[in-house]
Amino acid sequence: MMPAEYYLVLSAAVFCIGLFGILTRENALIFLMSVELMLNAANINLVAFSAQYGNLTGQVFSLFTMGLAAAEVAIGIGIILVLYRNFSDVNVTDATTMRW
């Protein structure tokens, strides 16, 4: 079995790519994909530590996280559709005009 450090480095790289996507993009679809990358990085950590310590708790939490990610995408796509319907664009800086 590979050492856990390899999985942690992979997870850190995927998380940093997701964080970079959130901080630098204005497209709402890119936001959703970046959040998914960050959640997948957390899943990699959970499964790696679960395998290292020999219990299934991390893998069960990983399944719950996948369900959370699916719900987040469903709600996010709905929000993006409303943005596109109101502004004809999915740029998140346009949504600030929806304030009071």
From TrEMBL:
Signal peptide span: none
Family: Belongs to the complex I subunit 4L family.
Gene Ontology cellular-component annotations: NADH dehydrogenase complex
Protein name: NADH dehydrogenase subunit K
Keywords, ordered alphabetically: Membrane, Transmembrane, Transmembrane helix, Transport
Main location: membrane
Membrane-crossing segments per the record: 6-23, 30-51, 63-84
One GO biological process term: ATP synthesis coupled electron transport
Membrane-topology annotation of the record: Multi-pass membrane protein
PANTHER family: NADH-UBIQUINONE OXIDOREDUCTASE CHAIN 4L, NADH-UBIQUINONE OXIDOREDUCTASE SUBUNIT ND4L
Record organism: Halomicrobium zhouii
InterPro entries linked: NADH_UbQ_OxRdtase_chain4L/K, NUOK/Mnh_C1-like
Pfam family of the protein (one): Oxidored_q2
Location(s) in or outside the cell: Membrane
GO-annotated molecular function: oxidoreductase activity, acting on NAD(P)H
